[in-house]
Amino acid sequence: MKLSERLLEIAGLVPRGSCVSDVGTDHALLPIYLVKNGIAQRVIAVEARYGPWMRARENVKKAGLSDFIDVRLGDGFEPLKPGEVDVAIIAGLGGETIWSIMEKSPDIVNSLYAIILQPMKNAHRLRKALFENCFEITEERVVCSKGRYFEIMVVKKGTSCFFSEEDVILGPVLKQKRTPEVLEYIEARLNRLFIKLRELEGQNSEHAKKARESMLREMELLKGVLEE
Ligand SMILES: C[S@@+](CC[C@H](N)C(=O)[O-])C[C@H]1O[C@@H](n2cnc3c(N)ncnc32)[C@H](O)[C@@H]1O
Asked: Distance (Å, rounded) from C-alpha 41 to C-alpha 56?
């Protein structure tokens, strides 16, 4: 099975030789790729739903990797004990769900060397929660796949809880990067915000006013980053 560009970019951030947990594994494609390519020594794949859990187990068995990939049924980090893995991946879930998974298991989360996160939406809410709880974002990537942009971040528990508005809106590492992908991503976000603002024209409800204010602020911050 071929890995999507999004999952390939995530795989590229996993330190070689690590023991990894893939939370919300679904089909277990990522764990299979990580072990087959000698990136992870061992993976504990976690899945909350019975159907995908069974399918993940089948896929691992078919790949002949049952000795290296343990597929556990459960919620978030609950099926794990501290020290079993050094890296965790939570990808393909909403930013708020990702944070709620992390928040429920401080013992596991604080024991990890790195956590790779890829929110499908609300990346800014996830970043805010991370900063407020003194997590440090050490690397960020943006990948465009089939016309959609995905943000990927590597985080670890830090000591400083300091952050700026740009850090929340775009990310502390992305805002410094001047790669064509990041610049295109910022342009694409500005275009989308512009279209959304046009759609709000003529609407005067409190909700519309708040949404307009927040979008204008986001545009101002993104333009500021582009102009730096
Ligand atoms: C959209 S899939 C993403 C699959 C894969 N991680 C990826 O990025 O392609 C999300 C999976 O996470 C599982 N999931 C959702 N909440 C979960 C939780 N709290 N613990 C474990 N798995 C969860 C869902 O059942 C689903 O199979």
From this structure: 18
Q: Would the CB of 45 count as within 6 Å of ligand 1?
A: no
Vertex 195 angle, CA 189 and 201, to 5°? 135
Residue 216 Cα to ligand 1 middle (Å): 33
pLDDT value of position 119? 98
Residue 124's contacts (CB-CB under 8 Å, 6 or more residues apart) are 95, 168, 169
State if residue 94 touches ligand 1 by the CB under 6 angstroms criterion: no
43 CA to middle of ligand 1, Å? 16
Specify the ligand 1 atom closest to the Cα of 92. Answer: 8
CA atoms of 189 and 53, how far apart (whole Å): 35
**d(C-alpha 139, C-alpha 150), whole Å:** 14
* 99-131 confidence digits (pLDDT tens): 999 999 999 999 999 999 999 999 999 999 999
Give me the residues of the chain with pLDDT under 70, please: 1
What are the structure tokens assigned to 79, written together? 């099926």
